[in-house]
Fold this sequence. Notes:
10-stranded antiparallel β-sheet
Amino acid sequence: MGPSDKSDGAAKAEALLKALEPWLNKHRRTAWLPQVKNGPGPAHGSRFGGLPWLASGESHPACGNCKQPLRLLLQLNLLSLPEEVRQRLGAGLLQAFYCEREDCEQECEGWSPFSEAHRIRIIEVTRGNMAAPAGKPFPPKEITGWKQAEDLPSPAEHEELGLDFDYDFEANTVRIRCPEIGLDAPPIGMDELQAETVANASMGDKLLGWPHWIQGVEYPECPQCKTRMEYVFQIDSEHNLPLMWGDMGTAHITRCPTHPDVLALGWACG
């Protein structure tokens, strides 16, 4: 392939991306990236790791399998979140706990959204304080603020959202179709354009936006109404917590839009 072929391919890719702007604009979402500093912060504040806020007289949440104290992954004071997030999530403290014991991960399928090896909840802030030390908590990182970022859906969700990539690996080309905007483009070299370069969800810890899927779309269903649960928060491997989800995996906290007290945490690895 000569220089003119490369420039022609780049021009075709640029034209395709421009043609896809209506689809991209439709599916852009705001993600909020946590800004952190070392230390726990206020007892009922937002943080990764450390100790949870507990109501007066409440015992530290325990693993349903080994009965040992669960480690706090995340605590979010929902009233301290950006305004548009507060409107969606309401008030209270969202807390996510997890048991890292290998036996529990295997016996309780710790990666599954409703495993006994973890506990996700939203509680009211009434009388209480930061829990007494239990088990071995993760080093605390206070969430001091949020940085707004643009996010787009992962390739695993493109087809469901009306964007199709038909790959011809022998010819090293891909054909892109998007019926809702009347796009049926001729094949273009895979070196010039692929699904990941058109739109992809960001990695790392984040609030809202789009989930970065590892093995395909894995929104759980609410056990009460069978409705697809909505993504709320992404916890990535070794980002703000010294925790690896399998082999460089990612965990997602989801919530039922109909039953807001139903939350889940599921993770997948590469």
